[in-house]
Amino acid sequence: MDILTQDDAFAIETRQLCKTYASSGKNPPKEALRDVNLKVPRGSIFGLLGPNGAGKSTFINILAGLTTKTSGQARIWGFDIDVNPRQAAVSIGVVPQELSIDAYFSPLEILELQAGLYNVPSSKRRSMEILQAMGLEDRAHVNTRSLSGGMRRRLLVAKALAHDPPVMILDEPTAGVDVDLRRHLWEYMKKLRERGATIVLTTHYLAEAQELCDEIAIIDKGAVIVCEPTQDLLHRIDRKTLKVIPETPLNRVPETLNEEDAHLDEDGRLCVSYRRDEESVGALLDKIRHGGISVRDISVDEADLEEVFLRLTREEAHDYHGA
Ligand code: ADP
Ligand code: MG
Q1: What ligand is nearest to the CA atom of residue 173?
Q2: What stretch of H or E contains 183?
């Protein structure tokens, strides 16, 4: 009898995953991932969010077997990629970031070849059904070279689905994709989740992660800054920052703001982060004036992703210690 260990509750689990690309020519070695601990629950859509160069593709490529890790462990559907590489590979379908497609075959042939590669018996293949789901059924027999960029991207998604893996990994599936196709892909991913699939996608669009993902990990410079349910993350993001230019320069935050998330920025502005539903600008300004500060000017910033990065990085030291 199979005994589900705690680890098997996760579609993907990494421990202390590290990757340093070796030096080449004049380029020094590059640390792309540092001690990445992530757990992706089964049946969820999980977003890996981060700016360009954060290490998202490196993470995906290690899971996909396209890049070797430097150290650490990774399990896919309970299979360690070192111990059971074959089962781990069968458990995922990967849509890579680059639009690389073998142009010598038709879309249907590409799906059939892919299914064959994974030993899916003919009776279990769903190539036409998948092409239909991706809106490519009328292109099943054309030369792949004739497909537009958007169609190629859908074909890549179809190809990753050809062996019906429990885990789908999509690297920037909607980068450079038009609005209609983006919506279409989102709807399709939700449909897959309803059918029990687990989906991991990388993106640098906060809106995309917000719309789709049950859980979001933010990664920057190879390290996970935060990993939590989307609702919790949005709760943090739903903040504004009041920026006050004082009449005379300050050397510290006044004590009347001790209870607030306040700091002085490099331009000498007093920045107070607050939640709109909990505090008003008026009340904050009162506290600032009670602190003996005369206000020359104010502005209010919406938190954007950049700011969330900065704020979470500041909090990181005492707030987050990995999984
Ligand atoms: P992302 O997908 O988040 O944009 P990547 O994983 O592609 O980030 O890259 C992370 C870092 O590793 C970047 O600094 C990138 O330049 C570097 N990098 C990626 N691939 C290689 C490689 N093959 N050789 C050397 N450095 C690489
Ligand atoms: Mg990438």
Answers
A1: 2
A2: helix 179-194
Place of tokens 């030096």: 23
| Residue whose entry in the numeric block shows the structure tokens 């909990």 | 278
Tell me how far the alpha carbon of residue 127 is from its chain's centroid: 28
Query: What pTM was computed for the model?
Result: 0.76
| CA neighbor of 185 nearest in space, from 148, 228, 155, 165 | 155
Task: Give the ligand 1 atom nearest the CA of 222.
Answer: 10
Q: Are 119 and 143 in contact (CB under 8 A)?
A: no
Check pLDDT > 80 for residue 38: yes
Q: Which ligand is nearest to the CA of 223?
A: 1
Q: Which residues lie below 8 Å from residue 18, measured CB to CB, with a gap of 6+?
A: 31, 33, 34, 35, 36, 69, 70, 71, 72
Task: Write down the pLDDT at residue 100.
Answer: 75
**Best probe residue, ligand 1, of 19, 23, 30 (max atoms within 8 Å of C-beta):** 30
Residue 321 has pLDDT above 70, yes or no: no
User: Do strands 215-220 and 45-49 pair parallel, antiparallel, or not at all (unpaired)?
Assistant: parallel
Average pLDDT of the chain is 87
Condensed to tens digits (0 to 9), the pLDDT of residues 297-318 reads: 999 887 665 566 666 766 654 4
| Cα of 249 from ligand 2 centre, angstroms | 43
Higher per-residue confidence, 315 vs 70: 70
Sequence length of the chain is: 323
Q: Is the CB of 30 under 6 A from ligand 1?
A: yes
Treating both helix axes as pointing N-terminal to C-terminal, what angle do 149-161 and 179-194 enclose, rounded to 10 degrees?
Answer: 10
Determine how many CB atoms are found less than 10 A away from the CB of residue 191: 11
